[in-house]
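subagent[fold] <- orchestrator: predict structure for attached chain, return tokens only, no commentary.
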Amino acid sequence: MYKAVIFDLGKVLIGFNHDKMHMSMAKIMGISVDRLKEIIAKHELGTNFEKGLVSEDFVLQTLLDNSPDSFSKVDMVRAFSDIFEDNLKVKNLIPRLKARELKTAILSNTNSLHIKWLKNQYAFFDLFDAHIFSFEALALKPEQEIYQVAAEKLGLKASECIFIDDLWENIEGANKFGMHGIHFQSYAKLIADLAECGIDLE
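subagent[fold] -> orchestrator:
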């Protein structure tokens, strides 16, 4: 019997646009998007920031050091973070799940700047029983450690948890850990997949 439903954040609970992020950041720095991607890759900023291995100040200073144009850190944080939009239909499932006495959680590969931005923009974080962010867990999906952190925070066995993600490799990681993974493709498919697990939300 399932006792918790765990949601990925990006492309499940909220949409995001990486192209918009890269274009906005590159414009502020006065460089091309390709050059920006080279800087991010060279310094492994994306992965290391999401895994909690480097600080916000390190990321922002590295970008500044590689920028021909000066910029304010406030402007860069906005360019980096103002890329999200709410997925209301999925978010509105949370109270319905909790009404069925199911625990809920967010499990996301993300960084501290994006979470600060999102918490200022959206109120839905308080709806969840637990938040598991990669930069705090020091692990990234599909690494097994992050699923273990999620189960421990919820106080449940892996087999009691459903995990929803838009990326198949993260579903495979959850399944390997012992959770039941649901590959998110659409709202209608999610409702059908949850019903197959005995959670009828219609």
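orchestrator: received. Logging for downstream: Residues 18-29 form the longest helix (12 residues). The two ends are 19 Å apart (CA to CA).
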